[in-house]
Design brief:
Helix content of chain B: 40-55%
Distance between the termini of chain A: 98 Å
Helix content of chain A: 55-70%
Order of helices and strands of chain A: HHHHHHHHEH
Number of domains of chain A: 2
Radius of gyration of chain A: 28 Å
Number of helices of chain B: 10
Shape of chain B: flat
Distance between the termini of chain B: 43 Å
Largest interface: A-B, 53 and 58 residues
Number of domains of chain B: 2
Largest sheet of chain B: 4 strands, parallel
Shape of chain A: elongated
Order of helices and strands of chain B: HEHEHHHHEHEEEHHH
Strand content of chain B: 5-15%
Oligomer: heterodimer
């Protein structure tokens, strides 16, 4: 009887130990993280309109700069005198009437600076200098196409971000060169307009 | 002869006055910073500011419009989680050591933690340590550095110039943050005022799609006043149909340790994005909110002048 009781005690103790090991009440931090996850998923699902999110769940990976060959592949097909992707140039030419010379020039310049920032800038200084020019080009585009500049830049932007690899690369460049930078043309609006009128941008 | 002398004197005065005016007013003395929200590329942030400029229609030469680029993680999900973690810490205090570290970074000091110099500095700046500084997000010291690069040098240059002719004056700064940018704008403003003694009357915030529990401003925003965004004291605009802010409200209801965002104060009838949260495609797309934003930003700029 005594033996049986001892055995029972051992079994109960083992079970208690197992329970203690594998069950601990969820702590507050876990609850908060679970709520964060659920709310974030809800928003992402809505954004994607799928009901289920396929957004990247893991923490962002450390990005490496791409090899020249890979960079060239991502930059895409460029067979024109402006040094911008052929499909981006086509998009610009379709969306801006040919008689709007200023609009065409500004859109092409804007696309050039974007391309140079993302595929040719070697240093932050270089990228920031190109960014200043892009701001002026955007002002010029706005002057030439006051009601359609957004359509052109958004459409061209979608083309430039048309694959996950390109999106990832552009994001990496934005992070590397522009994170928490104060960005602008460093010019007053009047100075920007003067540059647009003279074509010197 | 007398008349000739008088004319020469008048000419000198006119030339001097116009030179003074050119020097004084060719430099901007108001900076408007747009701080973007989550999941925004630099190109998108540029488009946001351009659209804001179109809407505000203020081309005064003493105002410079800039983006303070809030980088994103590259994943909407991760960005949103970060916002909620910021919300979780929103009402927590910065530790004294955090404060000393930021202070050293800004003042280019490199005392090792625990050293005699560190302890001395900590004791000296204790009075400056502000308990309600609130949460400062990742890279806060970097943001402060960047901010200094642009604003402080211009501010000092302008102050030297103005000091020759009158009293000292700081450049004015208006933050127009969107979404997560509001959390950073609040922290940045608090830091500049409390740690750097930047005058509070020279810094304002007008928040768009505001997830924060407050808008740090010279005029406090009481929830009871939040009903009408046209009210002069209300320094933010949030749509009652903004899916992201509504989800953050749910989040705060589920977790009482967090403070809910300030109440919505506008209805966005027209949105060009599914979340009705985008700066450009929701808040600057809906006619009513667009007018409110333009009016408020212009009023704040005029308020500085």
């Amino acid at each position: 009887m005594k033996k049986l009781l001892s055995l029972l005690l051992v079994i109960i103790s083992s079970l208690a130990l197992l329970l203690f090991k594998y069950y601990s009440p969820p702590n507050e931090e876990q609850n908060i993280e679970a709520t964060i996850e659920a709310v974030a998923q809800k928003i992402v699902s809505r954004a994607e309109g799928t009901g289920e999110s396929n957004d990247e769940e893991s923490e962002p990976k450390a990005k490496e700069q791409l090899a020249p060959a890979k960079l060239s592949e991502l930059e895409g097909r460029i067979h024109n005198e402006y040094g911008i992707r052929d499909d981006v140039l086509r998009f610009i030419e379709i969306h801006i009437p040919p008689d709007n010379k200023e609009g065409l020039k500004a859109a092409i310049k804007y696309a050039q600076y974007e391309n140079q920032i993302h595929y040719h800038a070697k240093t932050q200084e270089e990228a920031l200098a190109l960014d200043k020019k892009a701001w002026v080009a955007l002002t010029c585009l706005g002057m030439a196409l006051p009601n359609a500049w957004d359509e052109v830049t958004t459409g061209a932007g979608k083309l430039l971000n048309d694959t996950p690899e390109r999106r990832e690369h552009i994001h990496e460049v934005d992070q590397r060169f522009f994170a928490w930078k104060s960005l602008g043309s460093d010019l007053t609006h009047a100075e920007e307009e003067a540059k647009c009128k003279s074509g010197d941008y | 002869m007398q008349i000739r002398r008088l004319l020469i004197l008048i000419s000198y005065v006119v030339i001097l006055f116009s030179t003074f005016n050119t020097v004084l007013y060719s430099a901007p003395n108001i900076f408007v910073f747009h701080i973007n929200g989550v999941n925004t590329s630099e190109d998108d942030a540029r488009g946001n500011l351009k659209r804001l400029l179109d809407v505000v229609n203020n081309s005064a030469s003493n105002v410079e419009w800039r983006v303070l680029y809030n980088p994103t993680s590259g994943s909407l999900l991760n960005d949103l989680k970060e916002v909620m973690r910021q919300k979780k810490l929103e009402n927590r205090n910065l530790t004294m050591d955090d404060y000393v570290m930021v202070y050293m970074k800004v003042h280019h000091l490199t005392y090792p933690v625990g050293s005699k110099e560190y302890a001395q500095l900590k004791a000296n700046i204790k009075s400056e340590y502000v308990k309600d500084l609130g949460f400062v997000g990742r890279d806060f010291a970097t943001i402060v550095d960047e901010f200094h690069d642009k604003v402080e040098s211009i501010s000092q240059g302008l102050m030297q110039l103005i000091n020759r002719y009158g009293g000292p004056r700081y450049v004015d700064v208006l933050f127009v943050p969107h979404s997560q940018g509001n959390l950073y704008a609040n922290s940045l403003r608090s830091y500049l005022i409390k740690a750097e003694k930047y005058p509070s009357s020279n810094i304002a915030i007008y928040g768009v799609a505001n997830p924060a529990d407050k808008v740090d401003n010279t005029v406090n925003v009481a929830p009871s006043l939040a009903g009408d965004p046209r009210d002069k004291s209300v320094k933010y605009i949030t749509g009652d149909d903004d899916f992201v802010i509504n989800a953050l409200n749910d989040f705060s209801r589920q977790l009482p340790v967090t403070n809910p965002p300030l109440p919505a104060n506008v209805h966005l009838r027209r949105c060009n994005d599914v979340l009705c949260h985008s700066f450009k495609d929701a808040y600057l797309f809906d006619e009513n909110s667009r007018e409110i934003i333009a009016g408020k930003v212009n009023a704040l700029i005029k308020g500085f002048a």
